[in-house]
């Protein structure tokens, strides 16, 4: 909870602009290489292929693995786990949830022919190490133990010892057992007493996000910290021995881009991979050039973004990280493509893409009071600078009290859908921008299929969204209030498009979604 509070303070600072003291600059700000929520990134290179892991917290399947040939264009290749655990928080039981929790920052390694991905969770109280011989196809083997080691970095040293560096402010080091079943007794030690020190003494967020590597015989430790009144800042420490002594320096302090590490390509060129809080779209990755001077990695151009990054051209996020889905499946295809994730643990017998071929069927299985506590909400990332999602929904088999539709998911949410009552059905907007959800529109209908659209504008962090409905799939009518999107705790995640269905009176009703179609174009702004 202490760490969550610290991050809450940082998010509040972000909301008032503390992270962006240079907004008055006249030059356009550099855009992320992935304009979507891909936070806490960790990377490795195997041959000419890069692999990246990231945080998706309460979403399932979780701990995504992506690959790239150029550090700019990424595609999903899999997830490390289907569900992290089985408890009330992860199952949305009662009033409990795992928003902003689940699993956090991962570490990614390749050692002696085996891939390793690690994470940790305050929700389960465990540290996890997953292993596989095939990072793209799996299977993954889970090793887990207590306690949950915050923002740790897995490291294989040349002498065969396996370490985790972790912590907040004080960076600790522990040695792991050879079978990865836990920590070797009496091996815990503090290796950096105050990792925030290179950024000054007035610190808001103490150093965390450890990433540890070795280069030219020296050890390098990368962390993020946040000076009070300043911005997210990368700090770097180095040592001749993993146990220290460590010396530190300021690594990068520009536009709040921080947290990550460095990686080389097959030619020997070096790059930094970091991310930035980019408003309500989430935490977005950046790639910066690195050069070595006097045994230190120098990120960017004299501590700033270069005028010309000279990176490969981005081909966009579709179909690599997000993708439209017609819900048609050929024999042998996965039930859900990798772009999809469930909000919390799914109930697998209450959804189907085979009950009615060509459709996603969501069936209610319990009584819920609002969409944030509803199970089986299926989501994809929103993305920038603008993104749009449209869907068609067959409402024939809804029961009295059922609510279903298209959602913009975050703590401050809004959805457009259909609410069924004993006297009929109506298109309704659920506005969750305040303390409680309010009904922002109600339009009675008498037809089987209705169409919905959600448009998002993340340009220059304007963070606005609009909802629409259609009775024929061609003519769109705006409905409800403009949503002023906000990146907030407790969700700690960029906005998501979501398809949902929940019951408020009687279970067993269902809706059939014909498709989800994504676009980077939005309707003219209202």
TrEMBL record:
GO-annotated molecular function: hydrolase activity, hydrolyzing O-glycosyl compounds
Active site: 40, 208
Alphabetical list of InterPro entries matching this protein: ConA-like_dom_sf, GH43_C2, Glyco_hydro_43, Glyco_hydro_beta-prop_sf, Glycosyl_Hydrlase_43
Beta-xylosidase C-terminal Concanavalin A-like domain mapped to chain residues: 333-517
Stretch forming the signal peptide: 1-24
Keywords, in A-Z order: Glycosidase, Hydrolase, Signal
Annotated positions for site Important for catalytic activity, responsible for pKa modulation of the active site Glu and correct orientation of both the proton donor and substrate: 151
One BP annotation, GO: carbohydrate metabolic process
Coiled coil: none
Similarity annotation: Belongs to the glycosyl hydrolase 43 family.
Name of protein: Beta-xylosidase
Species annotation: Mucilaginibacter auburnensis
